Amino acid sequence: QVQLVESGGGLVQAGGSLRLSCVGSGSILRFDVMGWYRQGPGKQRELVAVMTSGGGINMADSVKGRFTISRDNAKNRVYLQMNSLKPEDTAVYYCSSTGPGATSYWGQGIQVTVSS
Hints:
Helix content: under 10%
Distance between the termini: 40 Å
Shape: globular
Largest sheet: 7 strands, mixed
Number of helices: 0
Strand content: over 45%
Structural class: mainly beta
């Protein structure tokens, strides 16, 4: 079994920062892609940022210049540094990973709330 566990969410004022962490564990030695999606109130789940094991990054335009994704392949960890947070960043953030055979895994989600 594979588990993804997120941490680091919470409540922050607009302009503040948070750092999300996700660790993957289980039967997979290395995830091909690790990253983050989010789902705001009344919205569909959307890509925030994902990173391949080789360092390739795909990031939403809405967070470019404010968010940074990084990962530790050896530890199956992925991080999301979120700066200059805006109220519209309020959402449940989900860690997502892709393993061998393009199988996708999801964490349970963590709340990020940005107050104005």
